[in-house]
Amino acid sequence: MAHCAVCSLQEGHPGITLDENGTCNLCNLEVADELLENFTYTNRVFEEFTAAGPNRDGEFDCLFMYSGGKDSTYMLDKFVNEYGKRVLAYTFDIPFESEHAADNIKLAKEKIPAHFVLDSDEAGITTMMRDVFNRPAPQKPGQYLDEKLPCVSCRTFFVIRAILCAIRNKIPYIALCADPQQILTMESNVREIVRGFYETFGRELTGRLFGEELEDVLFATDEELPKVVFPFIAMRYDYDPDQMVRELKEKGLYQSSPLETHCTLYPLLNYYSFKNWGCMFYKLNASSYLRAVKKNKNYDRSTYSIKFPRAANLPDLEQRLQDIIFDIARGDDDPRVHEPALVEIFRELHGDENAAHFVARSFLDMRATATRMGIKLA
Q1: For 336-362, what is the mean pLDDT?
Q2: pLDDT at 107 over 80
C-alpha cells in the first residue's frame, strides 16, 4: 500500500488521499481552511474568557475539566494561581482511567485552591464504549478521525456531562485542556457537540444515557449555553510537554510520565484502529511529527503529548505492534511472552523504563479488559 512521501500516512487511512506525487491531503494543507476557522473561533473565545470579570450569575467563573494528566494539571495551576479565576475543577471518574492520573489529582487537591467535584456514570460510559467497539466493520474509505472513534466518543460523553453540570450551575465557560494538535480537531460549539453525539449513537441510546435534559441543549439560545475554552490555543507555539512535566514535578504536582497517565483502554484503542483501519492509534500524531520535522529541519517541534523520536522507524514499529496486538486478541499464547517486545517498542517511543513496563502490562491485560467490558475480540 502506498504511503505519503512526507509523513508516511498510508493510502486508505480515514480521510486521507494521495496526489500524483505521493503527497497526502494533510501535507498539501487541503484542510487548512477548516482548521483556520476552528482556530480563529477558539482563539477568540479564549481571549474573551481571559478578559472577562467575575461571573455575576454564579459561584464559579469556569468549569475546568480536570483529568490528572500533565496538560490539565499545568493549566489548572495557572487558572487558579496566575489568572485568579474561581474554578470548579470537574473530574469525570472514568472507570478505565490510569491509577497514576488519580494519584496526580490527589496532589492537586492538596496544593491548588480550587473547588473539586467528582462525577461518575460507570454503567453509562461502559454501555456506550461497548456499543462502539462491538459495531460491525465500518465502511471504507471513512472520514478523518474515524480510527479514533472510541476515544472521541468517550471524551464526548464526559464533555456532555460537564456541559450539563455547567448549565445547572450557571457557569459561562468550560475549559478543556488538550494539546494543540488535538484542539484543532475538536468541536468547540456546545450545541454541535451534542448534535454530533445524537448522530453517532441515535436518539434511543442517547436518551438512555442522558435523559431529556440533553435535548434541551439543542433548543437553547446561545446566551443560555456555556462556551468551550481551549487554553493551549494561546500558547500553541510554546507548547513543550517536557518542560511542563519538569515544572509540575518541581511544584510537587506530578509524579508520573505522559505514558503512565494513559487510559487503560489504550491497548483496545489500538486494536480497534488496527482491525478496522490498519493503523496504530497514534498514527496521525506520529505523521504530524514527521511532517513538522521535515518542514522545520533541525527545529524539533512538539505539538502534542507523545513525542516520536526522529530515529524511530515508524512503519516497522507499527507493524510489530499490530502483530503483537492481534496475537494477544486471538489468545493463542500466554500474553506474557510478548512483554519484552512491548517494552522495547515503548522504549523506542521515548518512554522511560517504568513507563515502558507500565504500558506493556496494560497490553498483556487486553483480553481481560475486553471481557470485563463485554467487548468482543475477533
Answers
A1: 87
A2: yes
Q: What is the pTM of this model?
A: 0.87
Q: For residue 316, how many other CB atoms are within 10 A of its CB?
A: 11
Backbone angles phi, psi at 354, to 5 degrees: -65, -45
Distance from C-alpha of 218 to C-alpha of 189, rounded to nearest angstrom: 11
What three-state secondary structure class fits 352? coil
Q: Which residues contact residue 55 at a Cβ distance below 8 angstroms, ignoring those fewer than 6 apart?
A: 61, 86, 170, 171, 172
The CA–CA distances, whole Å, from 323 to 10, 11, 270, 271, 327 equal: 18, 20, 11, 10, 6
The C-alpha cell at 8 is 508516511
Q: How many CB atoms lie within 10 A of CB 174?
A: 25
311: Cβ contacts below 8 Å, ≥ 6 apart: none
The cell for 225 is 449555553
3-state SS of 289-350 is HHHHHHHHCCCCCCCCCCCCCCCCCHHHHHHHHHHHHHHHHHCCCCHHHHHHHHHHHHHHCC
